[in-house]
Structure formats: structure tokens, C-alpha cells
Amino acid sequence: MFRGSMVALVTPMKADTSIDWQALHDLVDWHLEQGTHAIVAVGTTGESPTLAVDEHIDVVRRVVDQVAGHIPVIAGTGANSTAEAIELTQAAKDVHVDACLLVTPYYNKPSQDGLYLHFKAVADAVAIPQLLYNVPARTAVDLKPQTVGRLSRLPNIVGIKEATGDLARLTHLKPLVSQGFNLLSGDDETAFDFLKHGGHGEISVTANVAPAQMAKMCDLITEGELEAAKSIHDALMPLHKSLFVEANPVPVKWVLEQMGRCGGTLRLPMTPLDSKFHKQLRDAMQRCNLV
């Protein structure tokens, strides 16, 4: 099963917007040292919409090679074209990832039957563990619990990243999904409660900048030390909130740049963090001991 703190890793870029391979290598090393439980490469936070297919797969391959089996590597391979999602998922399998993360088809606004058939087609085509990814705020489509329940019974579909922030979703999902199905939070603000009530892990933006704290929080929940875990969660709340003052990954890349971990460059149409948010982010970094 996929558990614990799984970082939704940024893709560091140089000033000319080319991928900064050395910074990527250094970030992966840091996560291995800090106890991150798994790495999600080229998801939303990794700027998947603006990476070319060859770049996308090269990032995944390099992360897999560097991690060398020490922790799982999950590749973002979702697309709003079913054929493209199959192509990306097969390419990720070819470079030996442990699983793939597939977002709901965005912009198309498919029906629940369309969503079921989309994910079924990918699962039928590529024999690799696959995680569904539900984030209606970005995709304009909501993967309903009943549809997740149907999908959970298909071979290769092993879990879901639920990023609605609605804790009631967990209650609705648990009786509908098959045994062993991975229930993962995709929302840092509500992740503690999600895990406390039976979730298995979190795919986290905050883990980019506070990996040890996020990993420790998840470990403590697993050990039943809820009060200590809640203390970490509460201490990180300024970051959980501030990292979404603009669209992800704009704020988290800015914080990483302030920390000296990588540059803050983004590819258009994403633009640098508005200066009006700098003080809020600096204050959150200070409160969370990141400076």
C-alpha cells in the first residue's frame, strides 16, 4: 500500500525555463534524507501541463534511477485524452515507476460513465498500479464516490488522491471501495483529519518545503500518537494556507527559492508570485522555522 507523506515534487527550472537537473537531483536527495515516504514526479505541482512528453518521461526516469527503490516513485500520467493518458502511463511503466497518478480528464467535462470508461481503458491497457486523482477545482469534473467504488474493483486501480478537502468524502468512499484500496489526501489543510479517520497517506505540496515535519506527522498518526501529530499539523498550518495564495506551484516554488533549494522559475502561463504575497509567505516561513 501507498502510505505516509508523499511529496508532490516541483520540477525545478533554470532562468531560461529549461529543467534544472542538478537542482532536481539535490531535491530528491533531500527528500530521501528527510524521510519522505514516496515521491510523486510530474504531477500538478511538477508543472505537468507545460512539460513536453520527452521532458515528462525524462524527469520520471531520473527520479526513479536516483531513488533506486528506496521509496516508491509515482508518476503523474493523467491527460484529458484517453489515448494520451495510456501513452504516458505506458512510458512511465517502461522506466520502472512503482505506480501512476491519473487526474480526471479536465476541460472535456465527461459524465460519470465517461470517467469510468476512461480510467478502465488505461487500466486495461497498462499493467501497473494506478491511482485516481480527483481535484474538481482544477478539472471542472468531480469523480463521485460511487464511480470510485466501481473503479476500485478493476485490476490495476489501487487507490485515489482525493483533493476536494471535503472530509465527508472519506466517509462516503470507505464502504464503497474494495479492500486494500489506498485512500490518499490531496489537501494539506485537512490531511491530519483525513488520516486520523482512516486515510492511508497524503500527496502533499507542503512536503516540498517541510519534508521531515510532514513525514513525522504521518508516522505519528500511524503509531497512534494523535496529539503529537496534531501539534505538527497545527504548527504547519501557516504554510498549508499560504502555499495556495496563488495557483500551485507558484507559491511553493517561491518558498523553495527563498530556502536556496531551487530557482523560482515557472513556465508560462504561470507567472512569479505577486509581490503583495511575499510578506505573508515570509511570515509563514518564519513561523514554521524555514528561515
Automatic annotation (TrEMBL):
Checking InterPro entries in the record gives: Aldolase_TIM, DapA, DapA-like, Schiff_base-form_aldolases_AS, Schiff_base-form_aldolases_CS
Which residues does pyruvate bind?
45, 203
Quote the Pfam families the UniProt record gives. Answer: DHDPS (PF00701)
The reply on keyword Cytoplasm is: yes
Active site location: 133 (proton donor/acceptor), 161 (schiff-base intermediate with substrate)
* Compartment(s) of residence: Cytoplasm
The site feature described as Part of a proton relay during catalysis is recorded at 44, 107
Which PROSITE patterns does the record cross-reference, listed alphabetically? Answer: DHDPS_1, DHDPS_2
Which molecular function terms from Gene Ontology are attached? Answer: 4-hydroxy-tetrahydrodipicolinate synthase activity
Could you tell me which pathway this protein works in? Amino-acid biosynthesis; L-lysine biosynthesis via DAP pathway; (S)-tetrahydrodipicolinate from L-aspartate: step 3/4
Enzyme Commission code: 4.3.3.7
Question: SUPFAM superfamilies in the record, alphabetically?
Answer: Aldolase
* Any GO BP annotation: lysine biosynthetic process via diaminopimelate
| Keywords assigned | Amino-acid biosynthesis, Cytoplasm, Diaminopimelate biosynthesis, Lyase, Lysine biosynthesis, Schiff base
**Known catalytic reactions:** L-aspartate 4-semialdehyde + pyruvate = (2S,4S)-4-hydroxy-2,3,4,5-tetrahydrodipicolinate + H2O + H(+)
User: Where mainly found?
Assistant: cytoplasm
Recorded GO cellular component terms are: cytosol
NCBIfam families the UniProt entry points to? dapA
This protein's assembly is summarised as: Homotetramer; dimer of dimers.
Q: What's this protein's function? A: Catalyzes the condensation of (S)-aspartate-beta-semialdehyde [(S)-ASA] and pyruvate to 4-hydroxy-tetrahydrodipicolinate (HTPA).
Q: Which family does it belong to?
A: Belongs to the DapA family.
Q: Supply the name of the protein.
A: 4-hydroxy-tetrahydrodipicolinate synthase
Q: Which organism is it from?
A: Marinagarivorans cellulosilyticus
